[in-house]
Amino acid sequence: MKITIVENYGEMSKEAAKILAAAVKDNLKPVLGLATGGTPVGVYRELIEMYRNGEISFKNVTAANLDEYVGLDAESPQSYVSFMKSNLFGHIDIDPSKTFIPDGKAKDLQKECDRYTELLADIPRTVQLLGLGSDGHIGFNEPGTPFTRHTHIAELTQDTVKDNSRFFASMDEVPRKAITMGIADIVSAQTVLLLASGKNKARAVYDMIKGEVSEDCPASILQRHPNAVIIIDKEAAQLL
Ligand code: F6R
Known about the structure:
Oligomer: single chain
Bound molecules: fructose -6-phosphate
Largest sheet: 7 strands, parallel
Helix content: 25-40%
């Protein structure tokens, strides 16, 4: 693991954007694995800025997102389709036909999981961007999820539902299930870039880096990845 501790969220976002921009520039057909939530918003802002300044183009980029809530329409403001449009895709020159997000409204969810697993095998990620759940989850692979799993339906834990409720009008509206890339899909990326900011991530950061590699802390699998890059701010690093 290559661990970098930076001052704050802004610096974390800048450092991560540099890594993603380099992957886009240095590869003929870059494939980015992308995340939603609060963590990557600053990174996406930086990338949009680079695009506006003419430093970078996303024309050759393929993007595959980690996850989507089950049961939300793509048009719903809380869906990850909407999130990606408003935080990144709607502001850059990426070809929408090369952006992929699991379909949380699929009639046959198991079939959708299998389809997404096959898709991911066809488009190996150059870089997989990750946030970190306060319980150590990556994607929506909650503690206890086998490291060998591919895309599957995950039941969100109470902690995750609570963390995600800030994006919804009430706790009741937060979906309890999501389709998520599995750990086996996530670690197949050439580089895994995990970001964490804020003191509510400090325990998970500690377990990920200093704890045993264990399914109790899904992110601890990154200790075994040949190219895991961890960028955290001082607050998230406070227990190290
Ligand atoms: C998002 C995702 C989740 C989040 C994690 C942290 O696509 O898969 O693992 O990265 O829940 O969320 P934030 O960034 O909101 O703290």
